[in-house]
Design goal:
The chain is built from twelve helices and 18 strands. By secondary structure, the protein is α/β, with parallel strands linked by helices. The protein has two domains: 122 residues, translation initiation factor eif-2b, domain 1 (Four Helix Bundle (Hemerythrin (Met), subunit A), Up-down Bundle), CATH 1.20.120; 213 residues, 3-Layer(aba) Sandwich (Rossmann fold). A seven-stranded mixed beta sheet has the order 8-7-6-9-12-17-18, with helices on both faces. Strands 13-10-11-16 form a four-stranded mixed beta sheet, covered by helices on one side. Strands 3-4-5 form a three-stranded antiparallel beta sheet, with helices on one face. A hairpin with a 4-residue loop joins strand 3 and strand 4.
């Protein structure tokens, strides 16, 4: 991702100091600050408190956190428990931890974590290559939340096809849903698009229907925190509404996610655990309370979009219909067998 003209990753590992270096997303877009993680407790804090966010970036941070803890001879049961409890909805978190905890005494944990990070970036680039083909010349793309380089270490999931479409010279523009209550669209996605010089417009969450009904949107692309066996998926709160309105207006609706976001242990979206966050995120704007003192709030961070509203899922293996995701399971099983035979 380009930041002030330089290429940078949102999650990096400084081997000489055994430190994880994160772009601190809490301070964007006002200023670029970094958060250095020196142990698993700080890694857990960073994930829990949104220093780093986005399912793949959370996974990479956890992978580095496990490697760091192994070097520091920490109690790994305690480490794993701490990291797993930070964010319950994103599947990449558990996927990364499981990958890092596989027994192989010959492995250097840091090298394994770096490899995991590099593969995450490679997958994002592939998602971009497949997704770019879905974006036609002169298209307006609607996206929700932040599924760009900040959320995936580099390139992005939902933003990767947009970046590649622009690189290929396509004339496009992006409608960025603000994404209340934490405003990841207005603060983070818009920041990334601005850095890339991509034409974009921030819109209120409730304005998506207006633009879709009035034929101002050609395609919707969002990310995913967890995709389950029947094709249902969890993403930032407000995604479901956009999917319903898109279908009502015959607009193609895609979710983009790597294989690490697929959870075949769950049959349907009803089984996905939904994280509820602090009431203050809804009741306050920054440090200022905007609601009456006696008012309460409910704050689910995610919702589930049923497969029936999904045109396709953009993965590193291609664009699949929700009913075709068993192909991903087959690829995973073949990969596991190949690894076991080497």
């Amino acid at each position: 991702m380009k930041v002030q003209g330089k290429e940078i990753r949102s999650v990096q590992y400084l081997q000489e100091r055994n430190v994880i270096k994160l772009i601190d997303q809490r301070f964007l877009p006002e200023c670029l600050k970094f958060f250095e993680v020196k142990n698993y407790e700080e890694a857990s804090f960073a994930i829990k408190n949104m220093v780093v966010r986005g399912a793949p970036a959370i996974g990479v941070t956890a992978a580095f956190g496990v490697a760091q803890a192994k070097i520091q001879n920490e109690d790994m049961k305690k480490v794993v428990k701490s990291l797993r409890e930070t964010r319950p909805t994103a599947h990449d978190l558990n996927f990364a931890i499981d990958e890092m905890m596989k027994k192989n005494d010959c492995d250097d944990p840091v090298e394994r974590a770096i490899e995991y990070s590099d593969k995450t970036v490679d997958k994002a680039k592939k998602i971009g290559e497949y997704g770019e083909k879905l974006i036609k010349e002169n298209s307006t793309i609607l996206t929700h939340c932040n599924a760009g380089a900040l959320a995936t270490v580099d390139y992005g999931t939902a933003l990767a096809p947009i970046r590649l479409a622009r690189e290929k010279g396509k004339n496009i523009k992006v409608l960025v849903s603000e994404t209340r209550p934490r405003l990841q669209g207005a603060m983070l996605t818009a920041w990334e698009l601005a850095n890339e010089g991509i034409e974009h417009y921030i819109i209120a969450d409730g304005a998506s229907g207006y633009f879709m009904k009035n034929k101002k949107v050609d395609i919707v692309i969002v990310g995913a925190d967890r995709i389950v066996k029947n094709g249902d998926f969890a993403n930032k709160i407000g995604t479901y509404e956009k999917a319903v309105v898109a279908k009502e207006n015959c607009i193609p609706f895609y979710t983009a996610a790597p294989v690490s976001s697929f959870d075949f242990s769950l049959k349907s979206g009803k089984e996905i655990p939904i994280e509820f966050r602090s009431e203050e995120e809804v009741l306050c704007m920054g440090d200022r309370r905007i609601a009456p003192a006696s008012s309460r709030a409910m704050n689910p961070a995610f919702d589930v979009t049923p497969a029936e509203y999904v045109t396709g899922i953009i993965t590193e293996y291609g664009v699949l219909k929700p009913g075709e995701i068993n192909k991903i399971k087959e690829i995973n099983e073949i990969t596991k067998k190949d690894k076991g035979s080497t």
